[in-house]
């Protein structure tokens, strides 16, 4: 089973995720994620792996499952969104049954804190170039900006490449106004949560790190009090 722990707090685990973890004999995951659920792991075998050890983590999990254990691989957010679901299916190659159990992804958690920025078409882009070539990402950022999508940026400050967010902003500014609302949410639903609503012009004067999701509006997105809203298009 590949399970999504959601953004971090227990209230955002779905009952299906809780049941899956409870039913597992072995829980496999990056140690930060295992640290979120110590009470659920008391009677279980734990396999804590380093941050970038995804392939090794997947192989270990599949071997344990092939040996007859019930294994839960935990990912943050939704395991099918920049999580472990893909690599587990690729490694398992049909040798063991795989079940993917969804979780609340960072885009949903951050959007909820900001109000309603994702009410119209949006594109999710990860600024980490560990697995996707930077040239491809530049093309995708530009295409989403040309299409006036609301843009959700995951991994906004890539390891060792702190300038990606600056480059992404420059590309977006070719097609979006500097007044475009931008929401920056750190540790959404994990805490202590920090939320800032700023503009594309000003966004870099705020701290953006790997625990942050950035949402850039479309041409209709506006600020209403403490909220960022992208109109769905209803006539009021
Ligand atoms: N599978 C995860 C995403 C993993 S990529 C999911 O579905 O949410 C890791 C990125 O997700 C982080 O760099 C950050 O941009 C975002 N993220 C994850 N949890 C977050 C949280 N609680 N608050 C804000 N952003 C978060």
TrEMBL record:
The Tetrapyrrole methylase domain, residue ranges: 2-202
GO MF, one example: precorrin-3B C17-methyltransferase activity
UniProt keyword terms in alphabetical order: Cobalamin biosynthesis, Methyltransferase, S-adenosyl-L-methionine, Transferase
Pfam families from the UniProt entry: TP_methylase
UniProt-listed CDD domains: Precorrin_3B_C17_MT
InterPro entries recorded: 4pyrrol_Mease, 4pyrrol_Methylase_sf, 4pyrrole_Mease_sub1, 4pyrrole_Mease_sub2, Cbl_synth_CobJ/CibH_dom, Precorrin_MeTrfase
Name of the top EC class for this enzyme: transferase
Keyword S-adenosyl-L-methionine: yes
EC number: 2.1.1.131
Annotated metabolic or biological route of this protein: Cofactor biosynthesis; adenosylcobalamin biosynthesis
Protein species of origin: Desulforamulus profundi
Keyword Hydrolase: no
Entry superkingdom: Bacteria
Gene3D superfamilies found in the cross-reference section: Cobalt-precorrin-4 Transmethylase, Domain 1, Methyltransferase, Cobalt-precorrin-4 Transmethylase, Domain 2
Biological process terms in GO annotation: cobalamin biosynthetic process; methylation
Name recorded for this polypeptide: Precorrin-3B C17-methyltransferase
